[in-house]
Amino acid sequence: MNHALPQPARFCPRCATEIPAPPEGEPPRCPRGDFTWWPDPKVATGVVVEREGRILLVRRNHEPAMGEWCFPSGYVDAGEVVEDAAAREVREETGLGVRLDGLLGVYSEPGDPVIFVAYAGAAEAGEPVPGPEATEARFFEPEALPRLPFPHDDAIIEAWRAHRARTDSG
Description:
Elements: E1 42-51, E2 54-60, E3 69-70, E4 73-75, H1 82-94, E5 98-107, E6 114-123, E7 134-140, H2 153-169
Parallel strand pairs: 1-6
Antiparallel strand pairs: 1-2, 1-4, 2-3, 2-7, 5-6
């Protein structure tokens, strides 16, 4: 899933001067030197939450991929620690606490401003209850996962399998 890059500023937010189109490969700059527009990436995070060998998924209640199953995930807030954001997203979308067990990987695509940080985690006690961003939340057998909608989901599952093999054997 490719998110659109943000459109560059057309006017300087400091002096309101129109910003001309920049040369290829250069960021837009205010001709008065007051401002340079840097299209910074947005960080998102998610957790492959496991309990008794099964994986927790949520059915999304918003776009992108509304109605599809995915890992509990979402954006990291400004100033928030990524691991805290991962645990917060699990709690918000499923009502469950999670103990993070390790980093599975960091994923990005050319032209997509989103950097996705994936973790493995173990669900704490309780039954999943969908939050406002999900219509369902439940555990699946790893061999019976529904189709997952995002570009790195298959790689994340493979990283989780490798992580689980390492932690189960050692």
